[in-house]
Design brief:
alpha+beta
Length: 324
């Protein structure tokens, strides 16, 4: 075989190999095109229906597989967002229903008292006193809704300063003295004599303590016990509000701080609540850089613990009046 023949054969081999490469590339491109077409159809079908599901594609292309994986991530995120929206919508409907019920009931009573006063069936002074109590209850409920709305929207500014938490705890317990004495509660208070300073806001902390103590009196009242203790651990201050009532079952423990979760569902069906007090208390605590946790042994004790950052004695006063 001469050199020309060898050269001719070599050229034919090269052309053959190039043809194979071209065919493979065309086939590969056609395969990707087919994969993309299939993915587009799957995605359209999912979006046209309920938006649930994932795109399935069989391919040897790593790029196509990665694209399908990212599309499925987006579908999963979209599904979760849709579920969250549905829960929020249901919660809003429940809130409107609760607002309507909780405001209509006391206002009906107020109107009844006013009608009785007009008919002079009872003394006007007694009726006015009862009507005033109901009206104050309505105003407190409306205030709670507005407070929660501000907290959840981030529109509530809280000035942080040094607060003597021990002094505030004593004052708050004294506010409940008449109720606790009237209902025969055993009250146990354990607060250090020296000042216990925390990073906080006096009004917000007062509301947190008031909500927790009110909750203990309302739902743990059958135990006739209220405990309030204050302690330091490392860089934090802890306040424990304890009652010896029926307690909270484990299945409800994760929901007691949920907005509009009414405690009568889990502790005492005879007691009515609006399901906002604990939500507001926890949200305020978190706004102050702390938190609230629950520990409950049904029939033994229930403890709500507020955790706040301690304000060391030697810390600069420049931290005061910081706005969150």
């Amino acid at each position: 075989m001469n050199d020309q023949t060898l050269l001719f054969v070599l050229i034919l081999c090269i052309l053959f190999l190039l043809g194979i490469v071209v065919v493979q590339r065309l086939s590969f491109r056609n395969g990707i095109k087919k994969n993309l077409s299939e993915m587009t159809g799957e995605l359209k079908r999912i979006l046209d229906q309920d938006g649930k599901g994932s795109v399935m594609v069989f391919t040897e292309s790593r790029e196509v597989m990665e694209l399908a994986a990212q599309i499925n991530r987006l579908l999963a995120l979209s599904a979760r967002a849709r579920e969250d929206f549905c829960r929020l919508e249901e919660s809003s409907r429940k809130m409107l229903s609760n607002i309507s019920h909780d405001i209509r009931t006391p206002m009906t009573v107020v109107l009844g008292y006013l009608e009785m006063m007009q008919n002079r069936e009872e003394k006007s002074g007694e009726m006015l006193e009862k009507a005033e109590r109901k009206a104050k209850g309505v105003m407190e409920l409306v205030d709670q809704f507005f407070t929660l709305a501000k907290l959840e929207s981030g529109d509530m500014e809280i000035e942080i300063s040094r607060v003597d938490f021990g002094e505030l705890c004593r004052e708050t317990v004294l506010d409940f003295y008449e109720i606790l004495t009237r209902d025969g509660f055993e009250v146990e208070v354990s607060i250090p004599e020296e000042p216990v300073f925390v990073h906080g806001n006096r009004e917000a902390l007062g509301r947190i303590l008031t909500n927790l103590i009110s909750n203990a009196v309302r739902y743990g009242g059958d135990g006739k016990y209220l405990g309030l203790s204050l302690r330091r651990e490392e860089k934090y201050v802890y306040a424990d509000v304890t009652d010896h009532g029926k307690g909270i079952d484990r299945i409800f423990a994760d929901h007691v701080f949920d907005r509009l979760f009414t405690m009568e569902d889990s502790r005492n069906r005879r007691i009515q609540g609006n399901g906002l007090g604990l939500t507001i208390a926890r949200d305020l605590s978190r706004q102050l850089g702390g938190d609230i946790v629950l520990e409950s042994v049904p029939g033994v004790r229930t403890v709500f613990t507020v955790r706040l950052r301690e304000y060391p004695d030697g810390e600069s006063e420049g931290m005061e009046n910081t706005v969150l």
